[in-house]
Amino acid sequence: MTVRGELTPGYYALPGNVSSQFFTGLLFALPLLPGDSVLHSTTALESASYVELTLACLRQYGIGVEKSGNDTFHITGNQVYQPGRYQVEGDFSQAAFWLAAAAIGEAILCSGLTEHSRQGDAVILDILSNMGGDVRRTAQGLQSLPTRTRGCIVDVADCPDLAPVLTALAACSTGTTQIVNAGRLRFKECDRLHAMATELNSLGADIEEEKNGLVIHGVPFLHGGTVSAWNDHRVAMALAVASQRAVNTVVIDGAESVAKSYPQFWRDFQRLGGTIRQEGSR
């Protein structure tokens, strides 16, 4: 790909059902241009909470964006970011792996998570509650306790990154779980719907793949085996969560892919009691 020239102010229209990151990037850049711009979503804007998080950050540093309806943003040019300090919140998309892991394993305490976060993935708390999970807020953080989770319908249109770990959790829960509005997951680092269905089924899960989602029938346990992470950090971490319910060893090819978003994942997995043997090690 060869890119030439400069970004210019004007009218930008792009689909909002592919990635909110395209909108976030333009919302950060367009206010700095010498003229006004309009950013429009040609479809329903999915992962809208991520865009709202972007807008809140922009406001904090002196950038104004006007929103019309749910799909159009009016951006005045010649704006200047104001300096300041910002404390990055704990990441609910990563914490979700541990909160879900505790539900089917042992209690885990996650610290550093903002109570009233704008993060879309903070909905993991509501989803776990709907599935019978037990997450409690303490002075130290959020504590997730082991419980008997059950299936439900989960709409991931605004929280697609949660789908892999929710699939792992659902596979180890009672009853049936439907993950819906998940078609965009086919265009992530890999086809996450197909990857999770394929690999968990190979471990003994019972998952049906649909065009825009998954139907997951919970099983009492998984039998173990060798699976692929599909070079996808979230698939690797989700399979690690599911390994708690395997009666035999689970081997994850491509486990190093966690480095994309969580390089210390395997260290933390061990700190929490997980047993790991790296291939080739003694």
Automatic annotation (TrEMBL):
Pfam family, one: EPSP_synthase
GO terms, molecular function: 3-phosphoshikimate 1-carboxyvinyltransferase activity
Domain called Enolpyruvate transferase: residue spans: 14-268
Entry annotated with the keyword Cell membrane: no
Keyword Cell wall biogenesis/degradation assigned: no
Protein's GO biological process: chorismate biosynthetic process
Protein's UniProt name: EPSP synthase (3-phosphoshikimate 1-carboxyvinyltransferase)
Organism (species): Megasphaera vaginalis
Lineage: Bacteria, Bacillati, Bacillota, Negativicutes, Veillonellales
